[in-house]
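Before drawing any conclusions, I needed to go through one protein's amino acid sequence and its backbone structure tokens, quoted below without any editing.
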Amino acid sequence: MLAGLHAMSENTNTKQPPLMGFWPHEAAIIAFLFWTLSTATDQRGTNQPEIYYGITLTAAVGALAWRCREEWRALPGKIFLAALLAAWVALFYFFGNATMGYVASPSLFNWMLDIYTSPFADEQHGLLMPFIVLGLFWWKRKELVAQPAGVWWPALGLVLLGLLLHTVGFVVQQGRLSVLGFFVGLYGLTGLMWGKHWFKASWFPVFLFAFCMPVGELASSLTLPLRLLVAKIVELVGHLGLAPDLIRQGTQLTDAQRTFAYEVAPACSGIRSLVALLAITTIYGFVGFQRRSNRAVMMLAALPLAVLGNVVRLCFTIVVAEVGGQDAGKFVETKFGFITFAVAIGCVYFLTRWLEKFETPAPATTASPHES
């Protein structure tokens, strides 16, 4: 009987997920996440987005533990770590936000969600990043438990650093310091309980939490130079034959007859797509390449590709405006924003194919019976 139960367990573990690689409960979590994200902007000012998002993220953590249950069993002190993490989250929930005049909630998470869901901000990627991190933990599950886990006291220093960052941020009402402190302490707690190897192996994907940091007005110092750069490049391309009479005044583009005029707005500078592209190229660089130089090239490519995508979109807009006038160009400008990402993602694809030529092939290994 015991042998039969063991065989049944093995069959369950080796059974493939039926829904495009996902189990039914995982698909339900994804569907609930998209519903939460689609309704979050309409529910700003209430605590409902925080509740729904918290439920979804907690369920995703549970689903990850279930999917990686073999590796999960190898980790010690799970209950104690769960208690520490709950206390850490409670600290930032009840004493996380000091800027009560902006968001009437003591929760740092409510403050973050209010920024992420603002129709005037470009921070929506922060909502997806925790789930991407969880997915990458599943991808690295074998590496994370490759060595025995145990308490590693030096990581306590990172927890104290996170607490210090939050204290300073709370006192001076700088929520970004508290956000940084939360993720630093979270990383430190896992390293404290599960050891040096876990700490080093989990640096990526934990590093991706940096993309959860609200940028806000800090991006303004980069936005204007990018706007000017995009406008100058479009002007140069226009004078090469696309629109010979194109005139640039600062960040405004027009023709000699003033039949059209477009402003290279902050959204057209590339800053909107830059952060998302940087996240994409960083993830692909670490997942797809082992060479540090290839990873660095992928990350550095985000800025020029963001600029290139916006230049192509504006050039296309000007061509349409030359033919059909201001209204036609305005329609393209507002409805064809996907061109920016289409161009950038296409370039990323060809860049990765080129970089693969310099990647050292991984040595062939024979899978152990345990892994197979």
